[in-house]
Amino acid sequence: MALVYGILFTLAFAPFDYSYLAIIALSLLFASWQQVSPKRAMLRAYLFGLGSFGLGVSWVYVSIHDYGHVPVIISGLLTVIFVAVWAVFPMLTGYLSTVSSPKSGIRLLITPVLWTLIEYLRGHLFLNGFPWLLCAYPQLESPLAGYIPVLGVYGTGFLVTSIAAMLAFLMLYKRRAGVLVGAIAIILAVGLLLKTQTWTHPIGEAFKVALVQGNINQDQKWLPENKVKTLRLYQSLTEQQWGTPVIIWPETSVPAFYSEINAGFLQPLSQAAAQHHSNVITSLPWDDNLMSEYYNAVMVLGKEQGIYRKTHLLPFGEYLPWQPVSGFVLNLIGIRLGNFTPGNLNQPLLKAGGYAFITSICYEDAFGDLAINNLQEAAYLVNVTNDAWFGHSIEGPQHMQIAQLRALETGRFLLRATNTGITGIVNPKGELIKQAQPFTTTVLTGAITPMGGLTPYAKIGDKFILYSLLILLGASVIYDRYLANKLKSQV
After folding, report:
1. pLDDT tens digit sequence for 57-104
2. Range of the domain at 416
3. 236-257: string of b/e by CB count within 10 Å (b at 16+)?
4. Residue 288 — very low, low, confident or very high, per pLDDT cuts 50/70/90?
5. Residue 463 annotated to the active site
6. How many whole angstroms separate alpha carbon 437 and alpha carbon 434?
7. Which is the catalytic residue, given 119, 135, 195, 251?
8. 121 and 26 in one domain?
9. Catalytic pick from 135, 195, 362, 395?
10. What distance in Å separates the CA atoms of residue 428 and residue 197, rounded to the nearest whole number?
11. Is 364 a catalytic residue?
12. How far is CA 368 from the centre of its chain?
């Protein structure tokens, strides 16, 4: 059943969107390991992780097989390994929850803290972080969404798991129902109240934007014979939008290194953009010939110019950890991957349309701490992505859901330009207000308002939540030891 609970948990996320299943699945899981040995709890939590990640990141197979052209057996094996690795994190929660306290009631107090801390660990430390399927993401339309601009994804996730733990307590012990139901009601009521709050404010007039969706098939994108055709497509779609202050292309929309096309393509395009009072935000691999380094980069062309180098690289996609072993193994089975250099964390903000903005490339938008870095200087968010690697899988809706939460956390409009979809405009409430039809060549136009001010989360960040949870964990363990010693003395 733990495997089934994991599948139910993933059904809470986009594109399924049964948000309540996140709480139900976690409550069933927490209840299942309260009166068992640590090994049994560890097994059940691992099965939960296999069910959750097995469905939730099944798109890894599409990327490896369909677009990496790796044989079926090897693609399946690599996907299984990927799922098995990330399932270790819920397993760790199950084990620590049971060994931290012999009393099942205290376990339910400790479990939400441990779950949230280990989600943070998964999202930051191991393999550069993989903050996917965090339990707060499905809550965008629930009452708990009100907490997101206050506590962020991890603080809100703690509330999700706390409600699940309270429900598990009711299922197991059927006592203190009034207190627990009241506590849950208060959490939800405060969330609804917070949803009515506006944390940021306009700092200027609305301006027009255009998001270019090229819809270039991933297996055709980097073929040398298609380079000129691709560049002409983006140039043609852009020229139809001259006069629009901000025009955005998706990730690596330019299928060539900067040094190869700067003089013949980028400079003339930049001059034309300046003449028409537009800024073009484009993306391409940027090469530093002096340092022999390569970056996944975003450039602003036009009167306002600048470059952003991606800081948070995708392991096994943009860099190879565990070298030289990983490189040897991947070369042996015929997988060729990039080897980019990460950019500096404190790069100057890019500017387009008269306002500075926060830039993220692809899954950098899964890291809330990146979105609030220098946010006080930024009026909106821009994310460029190439989800063509994952075809028609569930990855696209999941990724957009993550991007929406960044807009809600920061109280800013977010412009998301993708190669094949989902291209869209998200308002400061995290609502997708305009979307291009996926897998079509099109330009999505709209208008956004530059925003100022900071949400409470943007002021306190994740570290405040992290330290608070560590203190709560320590207090819970001390209280458990106190009860154990008191019981011994009475005996």
Report:
1. 999 999 888 888 889 999 999 999 999 999 999 999 999 988 876 665
2. 202-454
3. ebbeebeebbbbbbbbbbbbbe
4. confident
5. no
6. 10
7. 251
8. yes
9. 362
10. 11
11. no
12. 8
- How does pLDDT run across 356-413, given as a tens digit for each residue? 999 999 989 999 999 999 999 999 999 999 988 899 999 999 999 999 999 999 999 9
Q: Are residues 46 and 190 in the same domain?
A: yes
Q: How far apart are CA 480 and CA 340, in angstroms?
A: 48
Q: 41: which 2 tokens?
A: 């709890």
Question: Is omega for the bond preceding 15 within 30 degrees of 0, making it cis?
Answer: yes
Which residue's entry shows tokens 């939540």? 465
Give Cα separations from 306 to 32, 57, 210, 279 (angstroms).
Answer: 54, 35, 19, 11
Q: Report the Cα–Cα distance between both ends of the chain, in Å, rounded.
A: 39
Q: How far apart are CA 450 and CA 446, in angstroms?
A: 13
Contacts of residue 83, Cβ cutoff 8 Å, sequence gap at least 6: 50, 53, 54, 57, 60
pTM score of the predicted model: 0.92
Residue that the structure tokens 């989360």 belong to? 457
- Give me the catalytic one of 195, 221, 310, 351: 310
Q: Are 277 and 243 in contact (CB under 8 A)?
A: yes
Question: In angstroms, rounded to a whole number, what is the distance separating the alpha carbons of residues 226 and 196?
Answer: 50
Same domain, yes or no: 221 and 160: no
- Is 377 a catalytic site residue? no
Q: How many domains does the chain have?
A: 2
